[in-house]
Amino acid sequence: MADPDLRIDTDKPSRLKLAEQIDVLTMSSAQSRKLLKKIGTGVRKDARGNVKAQRTVTGGPMPPRADKKKRRMMRKMSKGMVTRLIGERNAVVTWKNGGQAKVADRHHRGVDENFTARKAAKVYGTPNYGKPATPAQAKSLNQEGYRRRTARKRGKGKAVLKRVSQKWIRENMTVGQAGLVLRLMRTDTRKGKQQWTIKVPERPILGASPESADIYLTAMAQEALQQIKRK
Fold first, then answer.
1. Do residue 17 and residue 97 come from a single domain?
2. Does the residue 130 lie in any domain?
3. Which of 36, 45, 87, 91 has the fewest CB atoms within 10 Å, i.e. the most exposed one?
4. Which string of DSSP letters, residue by residue, matches the chain?
5. Is residue 203 over pLDDT 50?
6. What's the pLDDT tens digit per position in 18-66?
7. The pTM is what?
8. Burial 1-20 (b: 16+ CB within 10 A, else e)
9. Residues 58 and 161 in one domain
10. Residue 151's pLDDT is what?
11. Phi and psi at residue 183, in whole multiples of 5°?
12. Is residue 83 a part of any domain in this protein?
């Protein structure tokens, strides 16, 4: 998979406000590379601002997490970005770490991720099924209407089903037991899914908005114009 990037091509000055007056290609290679580095720094700054504000490159809000939790999206993506020059007329903004770049690319373009039980275990680890049930499991069981068979306090008769507290679940059930009961209640099967797909909506943070593009390209034009005046 190719790294996500932003390509700045000075050979296509179609958006330049001063395009009729100057030719960006009059810049020397050293001047062009210097300007591309400067623009790359601006793009990285914009991307970090997008992550902090939880907005996309177009200014809209990022789609929320599938689990509806309010933790910030892509919070680790604001670090590790670099600008790499390609030839004399192109720059790429990407990440130092290849794994981080792939994660950013998946979110940037909205690429769904296929999982298997083995892959999930490799990514998230295998839980300790003998540990006490987690607060999240206890809450989920409670929400699903879990009831425990309880003997009557007085007299004879069949046991009755009674709701139990989340505290009771955490103190009396293990991670494995709680997980099995939840699966049976939700799917009526003992075995979980062996493969599934996680939907990933587009969350583009890397790139230049039309306003920023105008600023960057105008900077190119002004820089080139200054070089012309010095000749």
1. yes
2. yes
3. 87
4. -PPP--EEETT--TT-TTTTT--GGGS-HHHHHHHHHHHHHHHHHHHHHHHHHTB-TTSPBPPPPTT---SPTTTTTTSSEEEEEETTTEEEEEESSHHHHHHHHHHHHT--EEEEHHHHHHHH----TTSBPPHHHHHHHHHTT-EEEE--SSSSS--EEEE--HHHHHHH-BHHHHHHHHHHHHHS-SS--SEEEE-------SS--HHHHHHHHHHHHHHHHHHHHH-
5. yes
6. 443 344 556 677 777 777 777 778 888 888 888 888 888 878 888 887 7
7. 0.52
8. eeebbbebebeebeebebee
9. no
10. 76
11. -65, -40
12. yes
Same domain for 142 and 78: no
Per the CB < 8 A criterion, the answer to whether 168 and 137 are in contact is no
**Could you report the per-residue pLDDT of 85-117, keeping only the tens digit for each?**
877 667 777 888 888 888 888 887 888 888 787
Residues 29 and 61 in one domain: yes
Give the model confidence (pLDDT) of 186-202 as tens digits: 888 877 666 778 788 88
CA–CA gap between residue 201 and residue 111 (Å, rounded): 7
Domain membership of residue 117 (yes or no) is no
Whether residue 144 is found in the same domain as residue 163: yes
